[in-house]
Each structure stands twice: as C-alpha cells, then as structure tokens.
Amino acid sequence: MKKILIYLLCISAVLAGCDRKSDLNIDGKSTDQRLSEALATYQNKLADAPYGWILTETTAGSAMNGGVSVTAPRAVFSYYMKFDKNFKVSMISDFSPPTSTTFNTSSYSIKATQRPTLVFDTYSYVHLPCDPDPSVSNSPLGGGFGWGTDFEFAFADNISAAELGDTIHLSGNLNNAKAILVKATQEEQTIFTTTGFGAYNTFNKILTYFKRVTGGAEAFEMTPGIGGRSVNIKSPSNRQLVNVACQFTARSIRFETPVTIAGQSISSLDDLVWNGGTISAKINGTAAANIAPALSPIAPEPGIALAFYNEGFDNPWLAGPGFHVNGVDDAYNILKLTYPGGNYLAFVFYPGLVNGGGGRFFDVLSPFFTGLTDTGYPYLFSGGVAFTRVASGRLVFVMLDGGDGVVNPPGLLATNTIFDTGKVAPPYGSSSQGFYIVRKENGTSYDMVTAGDALGWMTWAHP
Amino acid sequence: MYTFKHATMKLTIFSKALLILLLAGGWSACKDEKLNITTPPVGLGGDSTGTTPTDVFIHDNLTVPYNIAVYYKWQPGMLDFPYDIVPPLEAQVKPALEALIAVTFKPYNDQTGSTAFLRKYLPKTLKLAGTAQYESNGTIILGQAEGGTAMLLYEINKFTRQAKDSAILKDMGHTMHHEFGHILHQNIMYPVTFRSITPAYTGNWFNVTDQDARMEGFISAYAESDPSEDFVEMIATMLIGGRNGLSGYDDYEKIMAEQTGGPGSESYNLLRAKEAAVVDYFASAWKIDFYALQRKCRLELTGYFQ
C-alpha cells in the first residue's frame, strides 16, 4: 500500500513537473513580454496625448524622511507637461514665477514595481517641492523634508493600461501624495505654452501680504498660508481664519474646498486679468470682482501684538529664513548666513533677554548659530538688540547699535533696516509704523508684516 | 491476502515500467521549454529609458575604461528608501563625473602607471543623487560605499567648477577618496596598531565639531566614530583637504598647522602618527608612494577650478 502511494506520488510529481500549463505564459506570451507590453502601453498613453497633460498634485498632509513622518501643511502643485516617446518630459509648474513660464526638459520612466509606476527619474520641476534642502523647496518643515510631495507615482486606477481614459489617478510611493493627470485640450496647450500658469503669475504680481477681494457678498482678505502654498481667508463678518489649499491654472485660482463668506460659497476666482496694480476676476466664473493690494489687515485680531511679544519671554520665537521682500522668499539670503565655526540655525526673537542695566531689558533680534563656543550670537551686539514697544496694535522696533567689532554682512544690515523702519524700501518717514502680527492657520505661528508697505514679512514659530 | 499481494507485485512491475516511460516522456517534454536568453528581463536591462548623450559619455569614460555602471536616473528603491532624496539634474551629471575622473581617478592612474589598479578595485557601480541624505541627528550624508560594490555620491545638483565654490567639488572628491579608502582596507586591512593611536572612538561624533576633534588627534569629527572611518578620513583629508566650517575647505597641512595645536602638541603628534601609518600602508599593501600620489592630487585639483 505504501509503495502504491510512493509510486502515485512519483508519477504525479513527474506529470506535474512537466505540466505545460505551469509556466506563466498567457496567450503564448511570457511574463517579461507581457510586462514590457504593459509598460509600453502606459508610456504610449502618456506620449500619445497630442496636447499634453495637466498634473495636479495634492499632498496628504505629511512628509517622510528617514522613516520619520511629520505633519505638513496641505499644498497643491500644478504642472502642465508633455511626454515624448524617448522618455523625455517637458513641463512648467506653478512652483515659482520662473517655473510658471519657462519649460524645462527632464526624463521619466515607467517601472514595474509593486504597482506600475511613473518615475520622474532626473531632476525636474516635480522635484523642487520634494527637495530636502529647504532653501530650494521653501518647505516650512526644515532640512530633510520637502512638502510631502512625490516624484515616484503608482498608477492608482487599478485597471489595465489599455483601459485608462483621459483622467489618470496617481498615488505617490513615498509620501502618498495624490495626483491627477488630465489630458489637455488644444486650447489649454496654447494657453500654457504662451502664458504659462497665468493665474499664478497674475495673482503674484500683487506683492503685498494682504490681498483684498471685493465684488462678492462681502469683501474678504487673502493672506499666504504656512509656506505660501495655501491661502488664509478672512472677512469682517467671518473673523475665523479659513485655510484652503489652492490650485492655479492658466486663468483661475481654484480652492480645494469652497469657502463660505457672508453666505456666499466661493470655489474659484476665474479669468484673472492684471490691470497694472489690481486684478479683475470673476467669482465662481460669473460675478465680477476685483483683487487689490491692501496695507493693513481687514479684521485685525485685538491685542495680538502684545500677546505675541509676551509669549516670547522665556520661549523665544524662531524664524528659519529671513524676510520675504517684494515677492522674494528670504530676499537677503539669511538662510545662507555664515559665521566661522558655526552653523546657522534660525533668526531669533527673544524678548527681555538682554539686561541693559538700570532695570532696563532689551530684546534679542538676531541670527542664531549653533556650534559656537561663545554665546552663539555673533551678530548680536553689532545691531541685533532691539528696544520694542507696542503702538496702535503694532510692534515697533528700535534697533540698538551696540558698537561691537563684528561687522554685519549686507543681508543682515538690510534685514535690520526693515526691523528699524517697518518698510522694505525708502522713503522711510520720520517714525516707523512697525509691524502687524498675523496669526497663521495652525494658531501657533505668526507672520510679522511691515506696516509701512505690507511688502515684507517673516514667519515666527516656537522651536 | 495472497491475491492482493500478487496484484501489488504486478502493479510494481507495471508501474516501474510506466515510471521509466513517464520519466523519459517527462524529460523530453521538459527539454521542450525554451529559455529566452536573448532579451534581458524587465528591470534587469529589459526596459529602456532612452539613450542620452550622458549615457554615451558614461559608457565611453567609465564603463569601458573602468568597468563601472553609473545610475543617475532614479530607480525605485535604489537608495535608502524612506528618505527624502531626489535624483540629480541630468545636465549636472557629465560635468560632475568629468571632475571626479580628473581630480580623483587621474592621480591614481598616473601614480600606478595605468587604469588597471582602479579598474580592479573601484566599485563597479556609481549611484548619483541630486541632494544629500538628511539624517534625524542633524547630519547629512554626502556619500556611502556599499560593501565595495557600489558607491553613492550625493549633492550632484550643487556641483560647480567655480573656484569660489571649490568646497563642493572638494567635498565630492573627499567622498570618493573616503569611500575608495574603505574599499582598499576591505581588501587588505590596515595594521591593527592604527586603532590604538587614539582609542577614544565614540558614536556621538556628531556632537563634536571638526575643530574640537582636531584638538583631540582626529582629523575630523566623523573620524572619531570608528577606526575605519578615522583611517579613510586621514586618506581623504591628506589627498584633498578637509572641511573648515560650513563653507570653508582647508588643505591638510593648513589644518595640521592651524587647528591641531601645532607642532609639538599631543594632537599634532597623534595625527602625524596616523599619517605615517597611512603612508606605510599604501607602500606595503599597494606599493604606492602616498606622498607622490598626494602631490599629483593637489596638482590636478588646483588645475581644475575656473
């Protein structure tokens, strides 16, 4: 009996071993052939679109580095891109004014990973928000983290390549950012190739911190969200800040979710046109509206300047980059400030730290360096000490010249001038108007905005 | 019972014959299966991403003379996965590799008389990244060697030939010499006595500044992490110099003179002892005159900046 079983086993083993059905051929094609064909179908899908694609990427609210996931502000990045058969892709994006009009060519590949994956495999505009260097990505998360965006995207529709239509869903492999590829029309191609991300450019021609929109049910104010990839919206009747990620297209600003102001639901500002100083637009594509620069907040938070100042005692405020001036982030390259033997950490605002003698205390308003054996404030006593007061709900600084031997670099001198005058450029006037303090959407970081012209601001947060 | 036994026997004879037949049939059936070895499988060369001028440059200048493959296009999972690292800008790849060949490969070739030495010992794979790898302890990784088979070079996007930004190329050359040093000592180990010159190695090296490390007889803070790192940091610093703060870069002799406590001090003597160990090692293990190699490296380096 045992023998019979052994023979049966042997026979079945031999039969099974040679069973031709056991190889993975389907329709006479091997796995590799089918893989290559599927990858080619994906590529053709992208490269065959005659007018290119519009890619909209939305972050999942987190960013990953070294196995550590941190919470990131929501952000939307938009691209117009054209794929070709030689694995090249040219694109523009709404990342910055130059990238919104200048096409850049890089490469892409379609890889067979756990899911078929589109990889932007050499550096392109897609990588700018991913860059771990915050001076490139402008990410508020610090070194090592971008915005929580991706450049390796799995095809997420869970259908075969041949069945994909004019809208393709993608999912980022590292940060799980969601992206949607939509086939562009000929008209869209014409707009993108001639004026780029026009709405982004137009909107950012207004350089002031406060942008006021009139024409709807009630005037409202748009200010930049953390890191500048979303907007904070406020109106006199709705003083509660609403943060909404926005997508820029050729002609429109679309809010990720509609915003309600005085009963009116607003989902987009369309047909933006620059009129040399202000922008004409249409709310929800219909009602005529106007976007204009404003020098002061539409609904200031009472007592905020003093509260901000007091909160800094024993708990200093830090700002990574320096002033955003006239549309340029960290205009004076404070992030790249050096001091021999030290590493730049942040700009610090530390009220009451300097004892001036006679019961008078002053505030530190200076770059901070780590790795220094002395106090770590190399520029402190050559202009990094402020006498601060609160006037008309604003913080007004007088920078004290300590006469220390260290000479401030030009970028720091320019920064100190802004602190001193509350303006980014002359004419300065007889006395400084100081700075508005504006609470950001997370409730714990604040923008300090030049009250003289609203053209310069710096973002403070606790470490 | 008997009948059953008989039947079993018959079955045995029958089945043995059948088994042989089946085996023969099975064998011939299995022989039919053809393995297609003309097309490489997908993911192992079977999928193309297009040939660019950069690919041609790499083939002619690295693959043919040194048998090195260069990955500059991003491959999923090629670098440490859960890190935010991005691929290099393609336009940066050729100039950076040219500089690497001129500043680090050429001196070795000149010193050993041919490309044979590097061809044998250089890692067979170079992987390039556009940015550094940022660690949670605040340090950034500029290069890594993977067990002598692959070398990772980061921050290709920052590469420039400008003399005012010479630290970027020096950093890259430093990484190359550092990692190649690892490969050399992984083939022939340095003498154990090297470990006892400064036995105070620490995992907390990143809390120490380079300046402090140099006062303790280590050529850099990273050299404090482990004897092997110490050994290759000595090689790299002697061949191309070392960091002085965030943006500065100093020649080995300048560091020795200015940052160690100077001739006669204990740290200076410890570093000179390490220097002697490196020179002896190159002479005995590799028959290379290290000081001559050092001179050639300096010559190529100064000639390279614009």
From TrEMBL, chain A:
Query: What InterPro entries is this protein classified in?
Result: DUF4302
Q: What domain of life?
A: Bacteria
How is this protein named in the record?
DUF4302 domain-containing protein
Q: Which organism is it from?
A: Chitinophaga hostae
> In the record, what lineage is assigned to the organism producing the protein?
Bacteria, Pseudomonadati, Bacteroidota, Chitinophagia, Chitinophagales
